[in-house]
Amino acid sequence: MSDTNLLDVGDYDDPAFADANRLLGEQQFAAVVEYVRGLGPAARPPTLNVGGVAAVVLRARPLAESFFRRALAADPGFAQTYNNLALFLRVDGRLAEAEQVFHAGLRVAPDEPVMRMSLANLLWLQDRHLEAEAALRELVRRHPEDAEARFKLGGLLLTLGRFEEGWPFYEARYEPTRPGAPEPINFGCPQWRGEPLAGRSILVWYEQGHGDEIQFCRYVPLLKAMGPAKVTVVCKPALAPLLATLDGVDRLVPAEGVHEIETHDYWTYLLSLPYLMGTRLETIPAQVPYLSALPERRERWAQLIPKDGFRVGLAWKGNPELANDKNRSLPDLSVLRPLWDVPGVTFVSLQKGVAEEEAADPPAGQPLLNLGRHFQDFGDSAALIEALDLVISVDTAPAHLAGALGRPCFCLTPAEGLDFRWLLERSDSPWYPTLTLFRRPLGATWDAVTPKVAEALGEAVRRSARAPAS
Protein backbone atom coordinates (compact mmCIF):
# COMPACT_ATOMS: atom_id res chain seq x y z
CA MET A 1 0.00 0.00 0.00
CA SER A 2 2.30 2.71 -1.30
CA ASP A 3 0.23 5.66 -0.08
CA THR A 4 -0.28 4.42 3.48
CA ASN A 5 2.43 3.99 6.07
CA LEU A 6 1.59 2.27 9.32
CA LEU A 7 3.21 4.35 12.01
CA ASP A 8 5.48 2.53 14.41
CA VAL A 9 3.41 1.11 17.26
CA GLY A 10 6.45 -0.26 19.08
CA ASP A 11 6.15 -3.46 21.12
CA TYR A 12 2.38 -3.54 21.19
CA ASP A 13 1.28 -6.18 23.70
CA ASP A 14 -1.33 -8.03 21.67
CA PRO A 15 -0.73 -11.52 20.22
CA ALA A 16 -3.36 -10.87 17.55
CA PHE A 17 -1.49 -7.81 16.33
CA ALA A 18 1.76 -9.78 16.21
CA ASP A 19 0.11 -12.53 14.16
CA ALA A 20 -1.57 -10.11 11.73
CA ASN A 21 1.59 -8.06 11.33
CA ARG A 22 3.63 -11.20 10.62
CA LEU A 23 1.20 -12.25 7.89
CA LEU A 24 1.36 -8.73 6.44
CA GLY A 25 5.15 -8.90 6.38
CA GLU A 26 4.89 -12.20 4.51
CA GLN A 27 2.52 -10.49 2.03
CA GLN A 28 -0.26 -12.95 2.83
CA PHE A 29 -2.83 -10.21 2.42
CA ALA A 30 -5.93 -12.38 2.06
CA ALA A 31 -4.91 -14.30 5.17
CA VAL A 32 -4.53 -11.03 7.09
CA VAL A 33 -8.03 -9.92 6.12
CA GLU A 34 -9.61 -13.22 7.09
CA TYR A 35 -7.70 -13.31 10.35
CA VAL A 36 -8.79 -9.81 11.37
CA ARG A 37 -12.35 -10.50 10.27
CA GLY A 38 -12.36 -13.61 12.44
CA LEU A 39 -11.44 -11.60 15.53
CA GLY A 40 -14.77 -9.77 15.31
CA PRO A 41 -15.36 -7.16 18.04
CA ALA A 42 -12.23 -8.35 19.87
CA ALA A 43 -9.94 -6.83 17.23
CA ARG A 44 -8.03 -3.90 18.70
CA PRO A 45 -7.00 -0.73 16.79
CA PRO A 46 -3.44 -1.73 15.81
CA THR A 47 -4.68 -5.06 14.44
CA LEU A 48 -7.54 -3.34 12.61
CA ASN A 49 -4.99 -1.01 11.01
CA VAL A 50 -3.04 -4.01 9.74
CA GLY A 51 -6.26 -5.46 8.34
CA GLY A 52 -7.05 -2.17 6.63
CA VAL A 53 -3.67 -2.04 4.91
CA ALA A 54 -4.07 -5.62 3.67
CA ALA A 55 -7.58 -4.87 2.42
CA VAL A 56 -6.31 -1.89 0.43
CA VAL A 57 -3.69 -4.08 -1.24
CA LEU A 58 -6.47 -6.48 -2.19
CA ARG A 59 -8.53 -3.53 -3.51
CA ALA A 60 -11.27 -4.38 -1.01
CA ARG A 61 -11.81 -0.69 -0.38
CA PRO A 62 -15.12 -0.77 1.56
CA LEU A 63 -13.67 -3.38 3.90
CA ALA A 64 -10.47 -1.36 4.35
CA GLU A 65 -12.42 1.74 5.29
CA SER A 66 -14.55 -0.24 7.74
CA PHE A 67 -11.43 -1.56 9.47
CA PHE A 68 -9.96 1.93 9.82
CA ARG A 69 -13.20 3.46 11.05
CA ARG A 70 -13.73 0.67 13.57
CA ALA A 71 -10.22 1.30 14.88
CA LEU A 72 -10.90 5.03 15.18
CA ALA A 73 -14.19 4.47 17.03
CA ALA A 74 -12.56 1.99 19.41
CA ASP A 75 -9.72 4.34 20.37
CA PRO A 76 -9.83 7.99 19.20
CA GLY A 77 -6.45 8.51 20.82
CA PHE A 78 -4.59 6.02 18.61
CA ALA A 79 -2.72 8.32 16.19
CA GLN A 80 -1.80 5.68 13.63
CA THR A 81 -5.43 5.23 12.60
CA TYR A 82 -5.84 8.87 11.62
CA ASN A 83 -2.86 8.69 9.30
CA ASN A 84 -3.96 5.46 7.66
CA LEU A 85 -7.60 6.47 7.27
CA ALA A 86 -6.67 9.87 5.87
CA LEU A 87 -4.27 8.37 3.34
CA PHE A 88 -6.94 5.86 2.35
CA LEU A 89 -9.38 8.71 1.74
CA ARG A 90 -6.76 10.60 -0.27
CA VAL A 91 -6.19 7.64 -2.57
CA ASP A 92 -9.97 7.25 -2.83
CA GLY A 93 -10.20 10.82 -4.11
CA ARG A 94 -12.01 12.14 -1.03
CA LEU A 95 -9.53 14.90 -0.37
CA ALA A 96 -11.67 17.13 1.86
CA GLU A 97 -12.44 14.19 4.17
CA ALA A 98 -8.78 13.21 4.20
CA GLU A 99 -7.74 16.71 5.24
CA GLN A 100 -10.25 16.72 8.10
CA VAL A 101 -8.92 13.40 9.39
CA PHE A 102 -5.31 14.61 9.19
CA HIS A 103 -6.16 17.70 11.23
CA ALA A 104 -8.03 15.60 13.78
CA GLY A 105 -5.04 13.29 14.07
CA LEU A 106 -2.63 16.17 14.58
CA ARG A 107 -4.78 17.45 17.42
CA VAL A 108 -4.29 14.05 19.05
CA ALA A 109 -0.58 13.76 18.17
CA PRO A 110 0.80 17.19 17.14
CA ASP A 111 4.39 15.95 17.11
CA GLU A 112 3.76 13.04 14.73
CA PRO A 113 6.03 13.81 11.73
CA VAL A 114 4.63 11.26 9.24
CA MET A 115 1.11 12.61 9.63
CA ARG A 116 2.17 16.23 9.23
CA MET A 117 4.21 15.31 6.16
CA SER A 118 1.18 13.50 4.74
CA LEU A 119 -0.95 16.60 5.30
CA ALA A 120 1.63 18.77 3.52
CA ASN A 121 1.63 16.35 0.59
CA LEU A 122 -2.16 16.48 0.41
CA LEU A 123 -2.17 20.28 0.36
CA TRP A 124 0.59 20.33 -2.27
CA LEU A 125 -1.41 17.88 -4.39
CA GLN A 126 -4.28 20.38 -4.44
CA ASP A 127 -2.01 23.28 -5.49
CA ARG A 128 -2.45 24.85 -2.04
CA HIS A 129 1.21 25.64 -1.95
CA LEU A 130 1.32 28.27 0.78
CA GLU A 131 -0.64 26.01 3.14
CA ALA A 132 1.69 23.14 2.27
CA GLU A 133 4.64 25.42 3.00
CA ALA A 134 3.17 26.29 6.40
CA ALA A 135 2.71 22.60 7.22
CA LEU A 136 6.28 21.79 6.21
CA ARG A 137 7.73 24.73 8.13
CA GLU A 138 5.85 23.61 11.22
CA LEU A 139 7.22 20.11 10.72
CA VAL A 140 10.77 21.45 10.40
CA ARG A 141 10.25 23.63 13.49
CA ARG A 142 9.14 20.63 15.55
CA HIS A 143 11.67 18.22 14.03
CA PRO A 144 14.71 20.15 12.76
CA GLU A 145 16.60 16.87 12.50
CA ASP A 146 14.10 15.53 9.91
CA ALA A 147 16.11 15.60 6.65
CA GLU A 148 13.13 14.49 4.55
CA ALA A 149 11.04 17.41 5.83
CA ARG A 150 13.79 19.92 5.00
CA PHE A 151 14.29 18.35 1.57
CA LYS A 152 10.55 18.51 0.86
CA LEU A 153 10.39 22.13 1.97
CA GLY A 154 13.32 22.92 -0.30
CA GLY A 155 11.60 21.31 -3.28
CA LEU A 156 8.42 23.29 -2.63
CA LEU A 157 10.25 26.60 -2.31
CA LEU A 158 12.12 25.91 -5.55
CA THR A 159 8.81 25.11 -7.25
CA LEU A 160 7.54 28.48 -6.08
CA GLY A 161 10.61 30.14 -7.62
CA ARG A 162 12.02 31.14 -4.23
CA PHE A 163 15.49 29.81 -4.97
CA GLU A 164 17.42 31.67 -2.30
CA GLU A 165 15.26 30.05 0.38
CA GLY A 166 14.93 26.70 -1.35
CA TRP A 167 18.47 25.67 -2.28
CA PRO A 168 19.78 25.39 1.32
CA PHE A 169 16.89 23.10 2.32
CA TYR A 170 17.35 21.06 -0.88
CA GLU A 171 20.85 20.18 0.30
CA ALA A 172 19.24 17.80 2.83
CA ARG A 173 18.66 15.28 0.02
CA TYR A 174 21.85 13.37 0.81
CA GLU A 175 21.88 13.52 4.58
CA PRO A 176 22.40 9.98 5.93
CA THR A 177 19.24 10.18 8.07
CA ARG A 178 17.00 10.79 5.06
CA PRO A 179 15.17 7.60 3.99
CA GLY A 180 16.71 6.17 0.84
CA ALA A 181 19.79 8.35 0.96
CA PRO A 182 22.83 6.60 -0.57
CA GLU A 183 25.82 5.62 1.46
CA PRO A 184 28.30 8.50 1.81
CA ILE A 185 31.19 8.32 -0.65
CA ASN A 186 34.76 8.79 0.55
CA PHE A 187 36.42 11.07 -1.98
CA GLY A 188 39.53 11.57 0.16
CA CYS A 189 39.00 15.33 0.17
CA PRO A 190 36.55 17.84 1.69
CA GLN A 191 33.21 18.70 0.12
CA TRP A 192 33.34 22.09 -1.57
CA ARG A 193 31.41 24.76 0.31
CA GLY A 194 32.32 27.74 -1.87
CA GLU A 195 35.99 28.15 -1.00
CA PRO A 196 38.30 29.89 -3.56
CA LEU A 197 39.23 27.48 -6.35
CA ALA A 198 42.08 29.28 -8.08
CA GLY A 199 44.78 26.75 -8.85
CA ARG A 200 42.95 23.94 -7.08
CA SER A 201 41.26 20.79 -8.38
CA ILE A 202 37.62 19.83 -7.96
CA LEU A 203 35.63 16.67 -8.68
CA VAL A 204 31.97 17.02 -9.77
CA TRP A 205 29.92 13.95 -8.90
CA TYR A 206 26.81 12.98 -10.90
CA GLU A 207 23.45 12.47 -9.21
CA GLN A 208 19.80 11.66 -9.87
CA GLY A 209 18.57 10.95 -13.42
CA HIS A 210 19.94 11.52 -16.90
CA GLY A 211 17.76 14.60 -17.29
CA ASP A 212 19.17 16.10 -14.09
CA GLU A 213 22.72 15.67 -15.33
CA ILE A 214 21.84 17.24 -18.68
CA GLN A 215 20.13 20.18 -16.99
CA PHE A 216 22.74 20.99 -14.36
CA CYS A 217 25.95 20.27 -16.25
CA ARG A 218 25.53 23.87 -17.50
CA TYR A 219 27.20 24.89 -14.23
CA VAL A 220 30.52 23.22 -15.08
CA PRO A 221 31.74 26.04 -17.36
CA LEU A 222 30.85 28.52 -14.61
CA LEU A 223 32.80 26.41 -12.14
CA LYS A 224 35.80 26.39 -14.47
CA ALA A 225 35.58 30.17 -14.76
CA MET A 226 36.32 30.36 -11.02
CA GLY A 227 39.92 29.42 -11.80
CA PRO A 228 40.47 25.79 -10.78
CA ALA A 229 43.45 24.14 -12.41
CA LYS A 230 41.42 20.98 -13.00
CA VAL A 231 37.72 20.13 -13.16
CA THR A 232 36.90 16.43 -13.28
CA VAL A 233 33.32 15.45 -14.08
CA VAL A 234 31.98 11.97 -13.30
CA CYS A 235 28.89 11.04 -15.31
CA LYS A 236 26.65 8.13 -16.13
CA PRO A 237 28.24 6.12 -18.96
CA ALA A 238 25.43 6.76 -21.45
CA LEU A 239 26.04 10.52 -21.14
CA ALA A 240 29.78 10.46 -21.74
CA PRO A 241 29.71 11.09 -25.55
CA LEU A 242 27.32 13.99 -24.96
CA LEU A 243 29.16 15.61 -22.05
CA ALA A 244 32.39 15.35 -24.07
CA THR A 245 31.11 18.48 -25.85
CA LEU A 246 30.68 20.46 -22.60
CA ASP A 247 33.00 23.42 -22.02
CA GLY A 248 35.05 23.59 -18.84
CA VAL A 249 35.70 19.86 -18.41
CA ASP A 250 39.36 18.94 -18.00
CA ARG A 251 38.64 15.28 -17.48
CA LEU A 252 35.42 13.34 -18.07
CA VAL A 253 35.08 9.99 -16.28
CA PRO A 254 32.21 7.55 -16.86
CA ALA A 255 31.02 6.20 -13.53
CA GLU A 256 32.48 2.74 -14.05
CA GLY A 257 35.96 4.29 -14.13
CA VAL A 258 35.82 6.04 -10.78
CA HIS A 259 38.40 3.71 -9.27
CA GLU A 260 40.98 5.42 -11.50
CA ILE A 261 40.32 8.93 -10.19
CA GLU A 262 43.15 10.62 -8.32
CA THR A 263 42.62 12.69 -5.18
CA HIS A 264 41.32 16.22 -5.67
CA ASP A 265 41.33 19.27 -3.42
CA TYR A 266 37.51 19.35 -3.28
CA TRP A 267 34.45 17.47 -4.48
CA THR A 268 30.84 18.54 -5.02
CA TYR A 269 27.50 17.11 -6.09
CA LEU A 270 26.34 18.43 -9.45
CA LEU A 271 23.00 19.66 -8.11
CA SER A 272 24.71 21.56 -5.29
CA LEU A 273 26.26 23.98 -7.77
CA PRO A 274 23.16 26.22 -8.15
CA TYR A 275 23.12 26.63 -4.37
CA LEU A 276 26.84 27.26 -4.05
CA MET A 277 26.75 29.76 -6.92
CA GLY A 278 23.76 31.61 -5.49
CA THR A 279 21.39 31.01 -8.39
CA ARG A 280 18.18 33.01 -8.22
CA LEU A 281 15.26 32.76 -10.59
CA GLU A 282 16.46 35.78 -12.53
CA THR A 283 20.09 34.58 -12.71
CA ILE A 284 19.57 31.06 -14.08
CA PRO A 285 22.37 30.45 -16.61
CA ALA A 286 20.16 29.79 -19.64
CA GLN A 287 22.51 30.33 -22.57
CA VAL A 288 21.84 27.53 -25.05
CA PRO A 289 23.10 25.42 -26.60
CA TYR A 290 25.63 24.32 -24.03
CA LEU A 291 25.82 20.78 -25.39
CA SER A 292 26.06 19.50 -28.97
CA ALA A 293 26.34 16.32 -30.98
CA LEU A 294 29.70 15.03 -32.10
CA PRO A 295 30.17 15.95 -35.82
CA GLU A 296 30.58 12.39 -37.05
CA ARG A 297 27.38 11.31 -35.35
CA ARG A 298 25.48 14.36 -36.56
CA GLU A 299 26.30 13.47 -40.16
CA ARG A 300 25.33 9.81 -39.78
CA TRP A 301 21.95 10.44 -38.13
CA ALA A 302 20.98 13.24 -40.52
CA GLN A 303 21.07 10.67 -43.32
CA LEU A 304 18.45 8.46 -41.63
CA ILE A 305 15.53 10.88 -41.64
CA PRO A 306 13.51 12.33 -44.54
CA LYS A 307 14.85 15.54 -46.02
CA ASP A 308 11.38 16.93 -46.73
CA GLY A 309 8.51 17.73 -44.41
CA PHE A 310 8.46 18.78 -40.78
CA ARG A 311 10.32 16.23 -38.62
CA VAL A 312 9.11 15.70 -35.04
CA GLY A 313 10.72 13.47 -32.42
CA LEU A 314 8.42 11.86 -29.85
CA ALA A 315 9.10 10.61 -26.32
CA TRP A 316 5.90 9.58 -24.56
CA LYS A 317 7.24 7.45 -21.73
CA GLY A 318 9.97 7.86 -19.13
CA ASN A 319 11.72 5.48 -16.76
CA PRO A 320 8.99 3.36 -15.11
CA GLU A 321 11.10 3.04 -11.96
CA LEU A 322 10.67 6.73 -11.19
CA ALA A 323 8.17 7.23 -8.37
CA ASN A 324 6.06 9.73 -10.33
CA ASP A 325 6.21 7.94 -13.66
CA LYS A 326 2.53 6.99 -13.60
CA ASN A 327 1.71 10.70 -13.71
CA ARG A 328 4.34 11.97 -16.14
CA SER A 329 4.28 9.18 -18.77
CA LEU A 330 1.45 8.73 -21.25
CA PRO A 331 -0.52 5.47 -21.02
CA ASP A 332 0.33 4.70 -24.66
CA LEU A 333 1.08 6.30 -27.99
CA SER A 334 -2.61 6.54 -28.96
CA VAL A 335 -2.98 9.50 -26.57
CA LEU A 336 -1.03 11.55 -29.13
CA ARG A 337 -3.47 10.68 -31.94
CA PRO A 338 -4.52 14.35 -32.52
CA LEU A 339 -0.98 15.14 -33.66
CA TRP A 340 -1.35 12.94 -36.72
CA ASP A 341 -4.13 15.19 -38.00
CA VAL A 342 -1.53 17.90 -38.66
CA PRO A 343 -0.46 17.60 -42.33
CA GLY A 344 3.12 17.55 -43.52
CA VAL A 345 4.66 15.97 -40.41
CA THR A 346 6.95 12.96 -40.11
CA PHE A 347 7.05 11.49 -36.62
CA VAL A 348 10.18 9.84 -35.26
CA SER A 349 10.35 7.76 -32.10
CA LEU A 350 13.02 8.75 -29.57
CA GLN A 351 12.13 5.84 -27.27
CA LYS A 352 14.93 3.53 -26.25
CA GLY A 353 14.06 0.49 -24.14
CA VAL A 354 10.85 1.78 -22.58
CA ALA A 355 7.98 1.76 -25.14
CA GLU A 356 10.35 0.48 -27.84
CA GLU A 357 7.94 -2.33 -28.73
CA GLU A 358 5.07 0.13 -29.08
CA ALA A 359 7.22 2.30 -31.34
CA ALA A 360 7.85 -0.72 -33.54
CA ASP A 361 4.13 -1.42 -33.82
CA PRO A 362 2.29 1.92 -33.49
CA PRO A 363 -1.50 2.22 -33.55
CA ALA A 364 -3.24 2.21 -36.92
CA GLY A 365 -3.15 5.62 -38.51
CA GLN A 366 -0.11 6.74 -36.52
CA PRO A 367 2.92 5.97 -38.70
CA LEU A 368 6.19 6.36 -36.86
CA LEU A 369 9.81 6.10 -37.88
CA ASN A 370 11.34 3.95 -35.15
CA LEU A 371 14.90 5.25 -34.76
CA GLY A 372 15.28 5.37 -30.99
CA ARG A 373 15.88 1.63 -30.91
CA HIS A 374 19.23 2.25 -32.63
CA PHE A 375 20.54 4.61 -29.94
CA GLN A 376 23.68 3.45 -28.20
CA ASP A 377 23.88 6.43 -25.88
CA PHE A 378 22.86 10.07 -25.54
CA GLY A 379 25.41 11.06 -28.15
CA ASP A 380 23.16 9.35 -30.70
CA SER A 381 20.05 10.96 -29.22
CA ALA A 382 21.66 14.39 -29.51
CA ALA A 383 22.66 13.84 -33.15
CA LEU A 384 19.12 12.83 -34.12
CA ILE A 385 17.47 15.67 -32.18
CA GLU A 386 19.76 18.20 -33.88
CA ALA A 387 18.41 16.98 -37.23
CA LEU A 388 14.76 17.36 -36.18
CA ASP A 389 12.54 20.42 -36.35
CA LEU A 390 10.81 19.80 -33.03
CA VAL A 391 10.74 17.42 -30.07
CA ILE A 392 7.51 16.58 -28.24
CA SER A 393 8.25 14.86 -24.96
CA VAL A 394 6.89 14.12 -21.54
CA ASP A 395 9.00 15.23 -18.56
CA THR A 396 11.95 12.95 -19.24
CA ALA A 397 15.52 13.14 -20.59
CA PRO A 398 14.76 13.96 -24.27
CA ALA A 399 13.05 17.19 -23.18
CA HIS A 400 16.17 18.23 -21.27
CA LEU A 401 18.38 17.18 -24.14
CA ALA A 402 16.41 19.22 -26.66
CA GLY A 403 16.61 22.23 -24.35
CA ALA A 404 20.34 21.85 -23.76
CA LEU A 405 20.88 21.59 -27.54
CA GLY A 406 18.82 24.72 -28.08
CA ARG A 407 16.24 22.84 -30.14
CA PRO A 408 12.48 23.59 -30.03
CA CYS A 409 10.58 21.28 -27.69
CA PHE A 410 7.02 20.91 -26.45
CA CYS A 411 7.23 19.40 -22.95
CA LEU A 412 4.12 17.78 -21.42
CA THR A 413 4.08 18.10 -17.65
CA PRO A 414 1.68 16.62 -15.07
CA ALA A 415 0.07 18.48 -12.19
CA GLU A 416 0.74 15.64 -9.76
CA GLY A 417 4.33 15.29 -8.60
CA LEU A 418 5.46 18.22 -10.73
CA ASP A 419 9.22 18.63 -10.66
CA PHE A 420 10.46 21.90 -9.19
CA ARG A 421 12.32 22.88 -12.36
CA TRP A 422 9.07 23.62 -14.23
CA LEU A 423 7.82 26.08 -11.59
CA LEU A 424 4.09 26.90 -11.61
CA GLU A 425 1.57 28.04 -14.22
CA ARG A 426 4.01 29.50 -16.75
CA SER A 427 4.23 27.98 -20.24
CA ASP A 428 7.92 28.81 -20.71
CA SER A 429 11.00 27.59 -18.87
CA PRO A 430 13.70 29.93 -17.57
CA TRP A 431 16.06 26.94 -17.72
CA TYR A 432 15.45 26.24 -21.40
CA PRO A 433 14.47 29.17 -23.66
CA THR A 434 13.42 26.84 -26.51
CA LEU A 435 10.91 24.83 -24.45
CA THR A 436 7.16 25.34 -24.36
CA LEU A 437 5.32 23.69 -21.47
CA PHE A 438 1.91 22.08 -21.85
CA ARG A 439 0.52 21.45 -18.40
CA ARG A 440 -2.09 18.82 -17.61
CA PRO A 441 -4.59 20.33 -15.15
CA LEU A 442 -5.07 18.68 -11.78
CA GLY A 443 -7.54 15.80 -12.09
CA ALA A 444 -7.61 15.93 -15.91
CA THR A 445 -6.41 13.32 -18.39
CA TRP A 446 -3.86 13.88 -21.14
CA ASP A 447 -6.79 14.18 -23.56
CA ALA A 448 -7.23 17.71 -22.19
CA VAL A 449 -3.70 18.57 -23.33
CA THR A 450 -3.03 16.86 -26.68
CA PRO A 451 -5.46 18.98 -28.77
CA LYS A 452 -3.56 22.08 -27.63
CA VAL A 453 -0.27 20.40 -28.53
CA ALA A 454 -1.67 19.53 -31.96
CA GLU A 455 -2.76 23.13 -32.49
CA ALA A 456 0.70 24.42 -31.55
CA LEU A 457 2.30 21.83 -33.83
CA GLY A 458 0.14 22.99 -36.72
CA GLU A 459 1.24 26.56 -36.11
CA ALA A 460 4.90 25.49 -35.97
CA VAL A 461 4.54 23.70 -39.30
CA ARG A 462 2.91 26.73 -40.91
CA ARG A 463 5.76 28.97 -39.71
CA SER A 464 8.39 26.56 -40.94
CA ALA A 465 10.12 26.64 -44.29
CA ARG A 466 9.26 22.94 -44.40
CA ALA A 467 5.52 23.61 -44.51
CA PRO A 468 3.85 21.57 -47.28
CA ALA A 469 2.72 23.42 -50.37
CA SER A 470 -0.98 24.31 -50.33
What labels describe this entry?
470 residues; alpha/beta; Serine Threonine Protein Phosphatase 5, Tetratricopeptide repeat; Double Stranded RNA Binding Domain; Rossmann fold; 3 domains; 6-stranded parallel β-sheet; 4-stranded parallel β-sheet; 20 helices; 10% strand; TPR repeat; TMTC_O-mannosyl-trnsfr; Glyco_trans_9; TPR-like_helical_dom_sf
Percent strand equals 5-15%
Number of strands: 10
- From the coordinates shown, what is the CATH architecture of the largest domain? 3-Layer(aba) Sandwich
Strands of the widest sheet, in order across it, are: 7-6-5-8-9-10
N- and C-termini, Cα separation:
56 Å
CATH superfamily of the largest domain: Glycogen Phosphorylase B
Helical content band: 40-55%
User: What number of structural domains do the residues give?
Assistant: 3
Structure description:
- There is one protein chain.
- The chain is of the alpha/beta class.
- It folds into three domains: 15-109, Alpha Horseshoe (Serine Threonine Protein Phosphatase 5, Tetratricopeptide repeat); 201-278, 2-Layer Sandwich (Double Stranded RNA Binding Domain), CATH 3.30.160; 295-463, Glycogen Phosphorylase B (Rossmann fold).
- Helices cover 41% and strands 10% of the residues.
- It has helices at residues 15-25, 29-39, 45-57, 61-74, 79-91, 95-108, 113-125, 129-142, 147-159, 163-170, 210-216, 219-224, 240-243, 273-276, 295-302, 325-328, 356-360, 378-387, 397-404, 450-463; strands at residues 201-205, 230-235, 251-254, 266-269, 310-315, 345-349, 369-370, 390-394, 409-413, 435-439.
- The protein has a six-stranded parallel sheet, with helices on both faces.
- Strand 6 (345-349), helix 17 and strand 7 (369-370) form a beta-alpha-beta unit.
- Helix 1 runs parallel beside helix 3.
- Mean pLDDT is 93; it is low at 6-11.
